[in-house]
Amino acid sequence: MNNLFKALNDPTRRQILDLLRGGDLNAGEIAERFDMTKPSISHHLDLLRQAGLVEATKQGQFINYSLNTTVLDELLAWLMSFQKTETSTTEKTQQPR
Questions:
Q1: Staple 71 to which of 52, 55, 62, 80, CB 3.0 to 4.6 Å?
Q2: Distance CA 15, CA 83 (A)
């Protein structure tokens, strides 16, 4: 999960995820939307892939990237487990004795 938080911590990587919400894109299409070098974009994409947030599929000379929402679903479920624990604890402390 550390890789996931590291990947989400960077605004460029979050922007890439936002782009991929609209559909699959290849590395060149993603790079066109940023004012940085292609190797820098490749580095961001690699970190997103390592975190499991994107999937990379090679098609000919291009690598297409797509969003992997399974990891985000797992993260949300984990975060929601804290809310349930918090609610349960609050309810127990507020009950009359």
A1: 52
A2: 27
Amino acid in position 44: H
The whole-angstrom separation of Cα 28 and Cα 26 is 6
Helix (H), strand (E), coil (C) string for the chain: CHHHHHHHCCHHHHHHHHHHHCCCEEHHHHHCCCCCCHHHHHHHHHHHHHCCCEEEEEECCEEEEEECHHHHHHHHHHHHHHHHHHHHHHHHHHCCC
Report how far residue 93's alpha carbon sits from residue 88's, in angstroms, rounded to the nearest whole number.
9
Question: Which residue segments constitute the domains of the chain, with CATH numbers given?
Answer: 2-68 (1.10.10.10)
